Fold this sequence. Notes:
This protein has about 290 residues and is an alpha/beta fold.
Amino acid sequence: MDTPRNTVETTKVRVNENGASKGWLGDNQRWWFDPSFAHAFSIFDLDSFYDATYFAEDHVRPETVTRYVDHVLAFGAELLGRPVTSVLEAGCAGGWFTEELIRRQIDVVAIEGTQSGYDRTVARGVPRSRVIRHDLRQPLALGRQFDMALCTEVAEHIECPFSSQLVQNLVNHSQLVWFSFEEPSTNDAHYHHSNEQPELFWINLFRFYGYRMRRLPVEVTRAIEDRGRMIFCGPVAAPSIPEDWSAAITTGLGGANRQSQVPPTPPLWRRIARNVVPPGLVKLARSLRN
Protein backbone atom coordinates (compact mmCIF):
# COMPACT_ATOMS: atom_id res chain seq x y z
CA MET A 1 0.00 0.00 0.00
CA ASP A 2 0.99 3.64 -0.39
CA THR A 3 0.68 6.29 2.29
CA PRO A 4 -0.49 9.80 1.32
CA ARG A 5 2.48 11.96 0.40
CA ASN A 6 2.87 15.69 0.22
CA THR A 7 3.97 17.23 -3.07
CA VAL A 8 7.75 17.25 -3.04
CA GLU A 9 10.45 18.63 -5.28
CA THR A 10 13.55 16.48 -5.62
CA THR A 11 16.65 16.24 -7.79
CA LYS A 12 16.81 13.28 -10.18
CA VAL A 13 20.24 11.71 -10.66
CA ARG A 14 20.57 8.44 -12.59
CA VAL A 15 23.15 6.57 -10.56
CA ASN A 16 22.84 3.35 -12.58
CA GLU A 17 23.17 3.48 -16.36
CA ASN A 18 23.42 0.52 -18.73
CA GLY A 19 23.95 -1.82 -15.81
CA ALA A 20 26.86 0.11 -14.31
CA SER A 21 27.07 2.43 -11.31
CA LYS A 22 27.86 6.06 -12.16
CA GLY A 23 27.72 7.24 -8.57
CA TRP A 24 31.35 7.18 -7.46
CA LEU A 25 32.70 10.54 -6.33
CA GLY A 26 36.37 9.91 -5.72
CA ASP A 27 37.74 11.06 -2.38
CA ASN A 28 35.24 13.89 -1.86
CA GLN A 29 33.82 12.38 1.32
CA ARG A 30 31.94 15.55 2.27
CA TRP A 31 30.48 16.07 -1.18
CA TRP A 32 26.95 16.80 0.04
CA PHE A 33 28.26 19.75 2.10
CA ASP A 34 30.71 20.97 -0.57
CA PRO A 35 29.30 24.16 -2.20
CA SER A 36 31.51 23.62 -5.24
CA PHE A 37 29.91 20.25 -5.98
CA ALA A 38 27.06 20.31 -8.51
CA HIS A 39 24.58 18.46 -6.29
CA ALA A 40 25.60 19.82 -2.91
CA PHE A 41 22.66 20.22 -0.50
CA SER A 42 20.31 18.53 -2.99
CA ILE A 43 17.29 16.47 -1.93
CA PHE A 44 17.32 13.45 -4.22
CA ASP A 45 14.60 11.49 -5.96
CA LEU A 46 14.70 8.00 -4.47
CA ASP A 47 13.52 6.18 -7.58
CA SER A 48 16.28 7.63 -9.75
CA PHE A 49 18.85 6.60 -7.13
CA TYR A 50 17.55 3.10 -6.50
CA ASP A 51 16.00 1.71 -9.65
CA ALA A 52 15.27 -1.84 -10.78
CA THR A 53 18.96 -2.37 -11.60
CA TYR A 54 19.88 -1.71 -7.99
CA PHE A 55 17.41 -4.33 -6.79
CA ALA A 56 18.07 -6.86 -9.56
CA GLU A 57 19.88 -9.08 -7.06
CA ASP A 58 19.78 -9.36 -3.29
CA HIS A 59 22.37 -7.32 -1.40
CA VAL A 60 22.50 -9.74 1.53
CA ARG A 61 23.64 -13.35 1.59
CA PRO A 62 21.01 -15.87 2.78
CA GLU A 63 23.15 -16.94 5.73
CA THR A 64 23.49 -13.31 6.82
CA VAL A 65 19.71 -12.88 6.67
CA THR A 66 19.32 -15.89 8.97
CA ARG A 67 21.95 -14.66 11.43
CA TYR A 68 20.49 -11.15 11.43
CA VAL A 69 16.98 -12.32 12.32
CA ASP A 70 18.39 -14.78 14.86
CA HIS A 71 20.14 -11.96 16.69
CA VAL A 72 17.31 -9.44 16.39
CA LEU A 73 14.84 -11.86 17.94
CA ALA A 74 17.26 -13.13 20.60
CA PHE A 75 18.33 -9.69 21.82
CA GLY A 76 14.77 -8.39 21.60
CA ALA A 77 13.45 -11.28 23.69
CA GLU A 78 16.12 -10.70 26.33
CA LEU A 79 15.32 -7.01 26.58
CA LEU A 80 11.54 -7.50 26.57
CA GLY A 81 11.55 -10.50 28.88
CA ARG A 82 9.36 -12.37 26.37
CA PRO A 83 9.45 -13.35 22.69
CA VAL A 84 9.31 -10.63 20.06
CA THR A 85 5.96 -10.75 18.27
CA SER A 86 5.84 -7.51 16.25
CA VAL A 87 8.45 -5.60 14.24
CA LEU A 88 8.51 -2.38 12.24
CA GLU A 89 11.13 -2.64 9.51
CA ALA A 90 12.00 0.92 8.52
CA GLY A 91 13.58 0.70 5.09
CA CYS A 92 13.10 -2.88 3.94
CA ALA A 93 14.87 -2.45 0.56
CA GLY A 94 14.26 -5.70 -1.38
CA GLY A 95 12.45 -7.42 1.49
CA TRP A 96 15.00 -10.09 2.36
CA PHE A 97 14.62 -9.57 6.13
CA THR A 98 10.86 -9.03 5.79
CA GLU A 99 10.48 -12.42 4.15
CA GLU A 100 12.43 -14.17 6.91
CA LEU A 101 10.50 -12.40 9.69
CA ILE A 102 7.21 -13.48 8.14
CA ARG A 103 8.52 -17.02 7.81
CA ARG A 104 9.06 -16.97 11.57
CA GLN A 105 5.48 -15.77 12.12
CA ILE A 106 6.42 -12.28 13.27
CA ASP A 107 3.83 -9.54 12.81
CA VAL A 108 6.00 -7.31 10.63
CA VAL A 109 5.16 -4.07 8.84
CA ALA A 110 7.81 -3.07 6.30
CA ILE A 111 8.35 0.48 5.07
CA GLU A 112 10.09 1.16 1.75
CA GLY A 113 10.50 4.46 -0.03
CA THR A 114 11.40 3.25 -3.51
CA GLN A 115 9.03 1.78 -6.07
CA SER A 116 11.62 -0.79 -7.19
CA GLY A 117 12.29 -1.89 -3.61
CA TYR A 118 8.57 -2.17 -2.94
CA ASP A 119 8.07 -4.21 -6.12
CA ARG A 120 11.00 -6.49 -5.28
CA THR A 121 9.61 -7.10 -1.78
CA VAL A 122 6.16 -8.01 -3.10
CA ALA A 123 7.74 -10.24 -5.77
CA ARG A 124 9.34 -12.27 -2.99
CA GLY A 125 5.86 -13.23 -1.84
CA VAL A 126 5.53 -10.69 0.96
CA PRO A 127 1.83 -9.72 1.12
CA ARG A 128 1.08 -6.18 -0.01
CA SER A 129 -0.73 -5.65 3.29
CA ARG A 130 2.63 -6.01 5.04
CA VAL A 131 4.50 -3.43 2.92
CA ILE A 132 3.94 0.32 2.92
CA ARG A 133 5.57 2.52 0.33
CA HIS A 134 6.54 5.62 2.29
CA ASP A 135 9.50 8.01 2.20
CA LEU A 136 11.05 7.91 5.68
CA ARG A 137 12.21 11.48 5.22
CA GLN A 138 8.58 12.39 5.86
CA PRO A 139 6.56 11.81 9.06
CA LEU A 140 5.26 8.30 9.59
CA ALA A 141 2.23 7.68 11.82
CA LEU A 142 0.91 4.12 11.85
CA GLY A 143 -1.09 4.53 15.05
CA ARG A 144 0.42 1.51 16.79
CA GLN A 145 3.44 0.34 18.75
CA PHE A 146 5.81 -2.51 17.89
CA ASP A 147 8.04 -4.65 20.08
CA MET A 148 11.02 -3.54 17.98
CA ALA A 149 11.80 -1.13 15.18
CA LEU A 150 14.61 -2.13 12.80
CA CYS A 151 16.54 0.47 10.84
CA THR A 152 19.33 -1.20 8.91
CA GLU A 153 21.46 0.50 6.25
CA VAL A 154 19.10 3.44 5.98
CA ALA A 155 20.57 6.29 8.02
CA GLU A 156 23.57 6.90 5.75
CA HIS A 157 21.31 6.99 2.68
CA ILE A 158 19.13 9.95 3.67
CA GLU A 159 20.23 13.56 3.45
CA CYS A 160 21.45 15.03 6.72
CA PRO A 161 18.50 17.42 7.36
CA PHE A 162 16.15 14.41 7.56
CA SER A 163 18.12 12.58 10.26
CA SER A 164 15.89 13.77 13.09
CA GLN A 165 12.74 12.87 11.14
CA LEU A 166 14.05 9.34 10.66
CA VAL A 167 14.76 9.02 14.38
CA GLN A 168 11.37 10.45 15.30
CA ASN A 169 9.64 7.95 13.00
CA LEU A 170 11.42 5.14 14.85
CA VAL A 171 10.88 6.29 18.43
CA ASN A 172 7.21 7.02 17.72
CA HIS A 173 6.64 3.34 17.03
CA SER A 174 8.81 1.35 19.46
CA GLN A 175 10.70 1.45 22.74
CA LEU A 176 13.47 -0.69 21.21
CA VAL A 177 15.23 0.44 18.05
CA TRP A 178 17.81 -1.80 16.34
CA PHE A 179 20.04 0.62 14.43
CA SER A 180 22.97 0.71 12.02
CA PHE A 181 24.87 3.59 10.43
CA GLU A 182 28.12 4.31 8.62
CA GLU A 183 30.96 6.38 10.09
CA PRO A 184 32.52 9.15 7.95
CA SER A 185 35.11 7.94 5.42
CA THR A 186 34.18 4.30 5.96
CA ASN A 187 33.66 3.91 2.22
CA ASP A 188 34.68 5.50 -1.03
CA ALA A 189 32.51 8.55 -1.70
CA HIS A 190 29.26 7.67 -3.48
CA TYR A 191 25.92 9.33 -4.16
CA HIS A 192 24.18 6.64 -2.12
CA HIS A 193 25.93 7.72 1.08
CA SER A 194 25.22 11.40 1.67
CA ASN A 195 24.92 11.04 5.44
CA GLU A 196 27.86 9.18 6.95
CA GLN A 197 27.97 10.48 10.53
CA PRO A 198 29.94 9.67 13.69
CA GLU A 199 28.34 7.54 16.36
CA LEU A 200 27.82 10.51 18.69
CA PHE A 201 25.62 12.21 16.08
CA TRP A 202 23.04 9.42 16.34
CA ILE A 203 23.44 8.92 20.09
CA ASN A 204 22.61 12.57 20.71
CA LEU A 205 19.60 12.52 18.38
CA PHE A 206 18.11 9.52 20.14
CA ARG A 207 19.01 10.98 23.54
CA PHE A 208 16.92 14.04 22.69
CA TYR A 209 13.89 11.73 22.66
CA GLY A 210 14.91 10.02 25.90
CA TYR A 211 16.46 6.91 24.32
CA ARG A 212 19.64 5.39 25.75
CA MET A 213 22.14 3.47 23.64
CA ARG A 214 23.11 -0.14 24.30
CA ARG A 215 25.95 -1.28 22.07
CA LEU A 216 25.84 -4.65 20.33
CA PRO A 217 28.91 -6.86 20.83
CA VAL A 218 31.44 -6.45 18.05
CA GLU A 219 31.28 -10.14 17.17
CA VAL A 220 27.53 -9.83 16.60
CA THR A 221 28.00 -6.77 14.40
CA ARG A 222 30.57 -8.68 12.34
CA ALA A 223 28.33 -11.73 12.11
CA ILE A 224 25.56 -9.69 10.51
CA GLU A 225 27.94 -7.71 8.28
CA ASP A 226 27.43 -4.40 10.12
CA ARG A 227 23.64 -4.53 9.83
CA GLY A 228 23.28 -3.50 13.46
CA ARG A 229 25.57 -1.48 15.71
CA MET A 230 23.38 -0.71 18.71
CA ILE A 231 19.94 -0.89 20.23
CA PHE A 232 18.34 2.32 21.48
CA CYS A 233 16.05 1.83 24.46
CA GLY A 234 13.21 4.25 25.16
CA PRO A 235 12.32 5.86 28.48
CA VAL A 236 9.93 3.05 29.37
CA ALA A 237 12.39 0.24 28.57
CA ALA A 238 15.76 1.77 29.47
CA PRO A 239 15.55 1.89 33.30
CA SER A 240 15.23 -1.89 33.53
CA ILE A 241 18.22 -2.60 31.28
CA PRO A 242 21.67 -2.67 32.95
CA GLU A 243 24.58 -0.79 31.40
CA ASP A 244 26.51 -4.04 30.83
CA TRP A 245 23.54 -5.87 29.32
CA SER A 246 25.35 -6.96 26.13
CA ALA A 247 28.06 -8.82 28.03
CA ALA A 248 25.37 -10.70 29.93
CA ILE A 249 23.34 -11.86 26.94
CA THR A 250 25.97 -12.76 24.35
CA THR A 251 26.18 -16.13 26.08
CA GLY A 252 23.30 -18.55 25.87
CA LEU A 253 21.98 -17.32 22.52
CA GLY A 254 22.13 -20.84 21.15
CA GLY A 255 21.58 -20.89 17.41
CA ALA A 256 21.76 -17.10 17.24
CA ASN A 257 25.37 -17.00 18.37
CA ARG A 258 26.95 -18.18 15.12
CA GLN A 259 29.46 -15.46 14.41
CA SER A 260 32.91 -16.99 14.79
CA GLN A 261 34.13 -17.43 11.21
CA VAL A 262 32.61 -14.38 9.54
CA PRO A 263 34.63 -12.44 6.94
CA PRO A 264 34.95 -8.66 7.27
CA THR A 265 32.22 -6.62 5.58
CA PRO A 266 33.35 -5.63 2.08
CA PRO A 267 33.56 -1.89 1.39
CA LEU A 268 30.67 -0.09 -0.27
CA TRP A 269 32.22 -0.08 -3.76
CA ARG A 270 32.45 -3.86 -3.77
CA ARG A 271 28.94 -4.33 -2.42
CA ILE A 272 27.40 -2.14 -5.12
CA ALA A 273 29.68 -3.39 -7.90
CA ARG A 274 28.68 -6.95 -7.10
CA ASN A 275 25.12 -6.10 -8.12
CA VAL A 276 25.40 -3.64 -11.00
CA VAL A 277 28.77 -4.10 -12.74
CA PRO A 278 29.65 -6.94 -15.12
CA PRO A 279 32.10 -9.42 -13.53
CA GLY A 280 34.87 -8.56 -15.97
CA LEU A 281 34.78 -4.91 -15.01
CA VAL A 282 34.71 -5.79 -11.32
CA LYS A 283 37.87 -7.87 -11.79
CA LEU A 284 39.55 -5.01 -13.64
CA ALA A 285 38.57 -2.50 -10.94
CA ARG A 286 39.99 -4.72 -8.22
CA SER A 287 43.28 -5.14 -10.10
CA LEU A 288 43.62 -1.36 -10.50
CA ARG A 289 43.01 -0.75 -6.82
CA ASN A 290 45.53 -3.38 -5.64
